[in-house]
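thread from #wetlab-drylab

HS: before we spend reagent money on co-crystallization trials with F7E, can we at least see a predicted complex? here's what I'd submit
DV: go for it
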Amino acid sequence: MGITGQDGSYLAELLLAEGYEVFGLTRRLSASNYWRIEHLLDRITLIPGDLLDQLSLIRALERAQPHELYNLAAMSFVPASWDQPMLTGEFNSQGVTRVLEAVRVVDPKIRVYQASSSEMYGKVREIPQTELTPFYPRSPYGVSKVFAHYITVNYRESYDLFAVSGILFNHESPRRGLEFVTRKVTNGVARIKAGLTQQLGLGNLDAQRDWGFAGDYVRAMWMMLQQDEPDDYVIATGESHSVRQLVEIAFTHAGLDWQQHVVLDPAFIRPAEVDHLIGDASKAKAQLGWSPTVDFAGLVTMMVDADLARYGR
Ligand code: NAP
Ligand code: F7E
């Protein structure tokens, strides 16, 4: 679920490479949204469905008869969760309950991965954040993901489902949505380089995130479902960088001076901010054998290069 998103596309590639038959749930839109999975369409099966529609989820599972289910579907853009808090809860919280109920009804042996988020830590209670750090979400998105996290734990404990939550810190790629800050910056750099614009409006440059590469993070999802026992894991690089550092690396890589192009735009300041996230993935390293392969500078330059190439530079 969520196969048309950033993570869904990388996970589908990984599962195909591992020899899986891959089914993906998609909702009908007036225009197709398959740009991330275009290259996979002849090797995967798409099934219509929506997190809002319980029966569609049950039918999808009956049709695919999966052994593993990855629920990556969500309203994932934090600012939009203030605009549409009710819908965010319907998708991200009750939508997960619907997925778990569908599993119970169709086949409780299906192994379930739920996409939890470092946004659950919000106003952090501890540095770095581990699986045991208390949650303090700072947006309707973060709140919705805390519900989803605990309903997954609860169904594991109540019904003995093999259901796990991966608490993933920010992960990015050339396939990241254009509104998220990494891609907004790398796409902005490419547009400036191509002469299409001169300015890039941004919000809080002081915010710090633990940014990794999405391709590394979907591998961790898959590893979690291959364990003997279901458990929750933090997935992070253990390094934190500011939006300002992101901007500096991206502009410098393209031979630009960011101070001549970046303008502060209050429209991008959030009602409540998550100032600083840094994860401790020791448990995943020890128990899954997972570690990231792409560092921050490598990630940013990969994304800048991909966007420059798109604009023909
Ligand atoms: P994304 O690119 O925004 O993809 C979200 C996916 O969810 C899309 O396929 C979208 O379909 C689908 N979706 C949204 N609403 C739906 C609905 N009502 N019914 C069915 N499908 C629906 O997100 P991502 O970056 O790949 O993230 C994947 C998951 O991990 C999300 O749950 C996100 O909250 C979580 N997460 C992400 C990060 C990160 O840094 N990327 C970190 C922690 C957790 P459409 O294409 O039709 O919109
Ligand atoms: O913001 C700051 C902004 O929107 C990162 C989602 O995948 O990761 C993502 O959530 C930071 C924030 O991601 C702009 O204030 C400054 O502090 O790229 P973002 P996010 O909110 O961290 C988590 C783990 C998820 O689970 C989510 O699904 O950058 N920032 N200026 C800006 N952010 C945006 N979007 N745009 C700006 O102009």
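DV: The first helix runs from residue 6 to 17.
HS: ok that's useful, forwarding to the group
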